[in-house]
Predict the 3D structure of the following.
Amino acid sequence: MFCYQCEQTAQGTGCTKAGVCGKNEDLASLQDTLLIAMKGIAAYGYHAREMGAIDPEVDAFLHEGLFSTLTNVDFDAERFITLNLKAGNMCYKAMELLDKAHTLRFGNPVPTEVFTGTLAGHGIMVTGHDLLDLHELLKQTEGRGVNIYTHGEMLPAHGYPELKKYLHLVGNWGGSWVEQKREFDDFPGAILGTTNCVVKPKDSYRERMFTCGVAGLEGVPHIVDRNFEPIIQKALELPQLLAQEGGKITTGFHHTNVLALAGKIVDAVKQGKIRHFFLVAGCDCPGKGMEYYLELVRAIPKDCVILTLACGKFRFNREEFGNIDGIPRLIDLGQCNNAYSGIQIAVALAGAFECGVNDLPLSIILSWFEQKAVAILLCLLALDVKGIRIGPKPPAFVSPGVFKVLQDAFALKLITNPEDDLAKMLG
């Protein structure tokens, strides 16, 4: 454990074996998990609030959860297990709130092919998660000779009717945030960072990068009140982009249009045409271990369907997977913000087959890196989803004792290797 939240920490630096206050590593781990999950919930709540959607119960829980982690407030591990599962329930409510806010403002997403090259002309690339920022930028650039490109978790924007109607939203550049420095270097236009998933910029593109909202970078101009004129002017001052060939990637599979295929999907399963579903989702991250997800997806048999969301999909979403009787084998549900859609699909399929979610021919394999992924995992556990695999490595803030509880209660597993894991998942 490591705790330095009070003045009485061991040797004035931090408690590493047990807290001076009396808490052990498992209690510290549960508190850390709760704090990290609340950060993720706060992100969803922030996006929803920006569009006028507020849930007082979610707000009240954030107060309760934060208060409970103060020094010398609560030493009951069972209560913190309950609070962590409550955090999962609040994450579900926050994601539902955000989904409704998005669809009310921008319409229900529809499957859309997205161009991955560039068109001749001035350009701005938008990264992050905030669709409201993108919408305002589209409105302010309409008719001004500036093409807009998405990057990273902005890719799903192309599926929303009220965003895709802007003809100068022309494509997606690059992949996940992991490749940001290289991809931003290669993109010659202006760059806008919204919310999270920004990294410290290289000097080579710093002068043409801007931030807005909660995002901020030292030495990078920050746009306030969604007045995007400074970045528009920068884009017009920069040389025009050259036309560059690109492929197509498909996004926009919201649960509303996937569920429209429910009858067809059920029939395909009953006829033996679809053997299994895999939800391969979560964060991309640098370092060893992430190759697992590409190798796994490539090895999944052709009679199986792959659902995906969040930036981890950029490891494999340019691959060609084909379809089963017109049902795409790779279904991109959108951002990490769209995990709600994945849950709705699972619940609906369970209803159609008259069984529980845990009885479905469904395996969930998650990659995680940041706080929203932790909140989503707790959400799935709060819904009593069992047998989830996570990776590429165990989280440092989860103690061995807490992880054993998760293994025993929810059959939570760490990934091993694609071949062995796939064999076990397919039975």
Residues 184 and 326 are 36 Å apart (CA to CA). DSSP finds 15 helices and 16 strands in the chain.
